[in-house]
Amino acid sequence: MDLNFTPEELAFRDEVRAFLKAGVPDDLRAKIKGGKRLVKDDYFRWHKALSEQGWLGSNWPTEFGGPGWTPVQKHIFEEECYAYGAPRTLPFGVNMVAPVIMKFGSQAQKDYYLPRILDLTDWWCQGYSEPGSGSDLASLRTSAVREGDHYIVNGQKTWTTLGQYADKIFCLVRTNPNAAKPQEGISFLLIDMETPGVTVRPIILLEGEHEVNEVWFDNVKVPVENLVGEENKGWTYAKYLLTHERTGIANVGSSKAALLHLKAIARDQVKNGRPLIEDPLFRNRIAKVEIDLMAHEMTNLRVLAEVQSGGAPGLESSILKIRGTEIRQEITDLARRAIGPYAIPFQSEALEEGFNGEPVGPDYAAPIAKQYFNMRKLSIYGGSNEIQKNIIAKAGLGL
Ligand SMILES: Cc1cc2nc3c(=O)[nH]c(=O)nc-3n(C[C@H](O)[C@H](O)[C@H](O)COP(=O)(O)OP(=O)(O)OC[C@H]3O[C@@H](n4cnc5c(N)ncnc54)[C@H](O)[C@@H]3O)c2cc1C
Fold this sequence. Notes:
It is built from 12 helices and 10 strands. It is α+β, with helices and mostly antiparallel strands. The protein starts with 6 loop residues before the first helix and ends with a helix.
């Protein structure tokens, strides 16, 4: 197995670098590099640049308008995006609901929804989790009762990421409360957020940001043609979607960019009259996480090489999820430690673009605590790390 990039892959990397230079506006890059707060327009500009380049559906087959990249090309693209300072590509439309529509949707759904994802007409959010139904997702209670040509939906979703920006939500709903197993009574519905009876309420997280929401459904009328696939088969589609949710879960590109930033901070901060990066204890912790990251990157490349030659990742995706999120969290923890007391004040206004007030500590300090708290989510969503460990224990170790 050769883990080095081929000349073609290196040429592709140059192409990506040239695109990023031309396609990411300077002000947007400065926001990312400075850890500023992003708004919908920031995501929109980035997605539009990708869309115009034909790269938004980077995981899509060419027949639906994707670029037909190999797994290694996708990895290179992701890594270069983080290194350059591009915003993340929001997965809900392009990497979550789209693959489900492609595989299980009707022709009319494919013709209607897929182009609207690529041209940014529709922004999607994910309506899976409910209070009490996260890891135990099959216990979800939001109901959809068929009345003529419509379903009447009632219930509540929670943790809906960026639901405040979304035009549409894909939802798991219970269509048969009497099924023998809870998984057998679930369906997959596409719902317009403008439908009367849909209410979005913000949840403000530990770091003070509005990233997630509750979404309530009060007698929401959803046309029957918005059902994907068959009624009561939604669990199969939901699981298929989750395999796509875990695409890029290794977090290699994001961790490499964050590690570089951490080193820059540790060079700037001073301990006992010397740069912090020369402190033996702190330097050891940076070295440890860097070695972990290098080993993790090799594992990721091995998995990608396997996928490229026709294999499918199994337990490896659980391993990549656990290690990737642990490493990313360790880097934010070290950054928080590096700035010491400057991590204590919460200066929300310093995260706004164009802030010219008095920063507490160096310019780079304001986003550090926010990132530390925000990154706690990594080990929770996309299937919590404990659940991934259960999967490895059962399917891998036979325990
Ligand atoms: C920032 C953020 C964004 C999110 N965005 C979305 C979104 O857009 N759409 C969406 O649908 N959902 C979203 N989620 C929800 C996410 O998928 C759930 O939080 C996750 O599945 C865990 O469910 P829970 O929060 O109900 O915790 P619980 O399932 O109640 O788990 C609580 C704790 O118990 C542990 N645990 C649970 N069961 C077991 C077990 N069997 N063995 C061992 N340990 C166990 C868990 O690992 C966790 O540590 C988001 C969550 C967060 C934090």
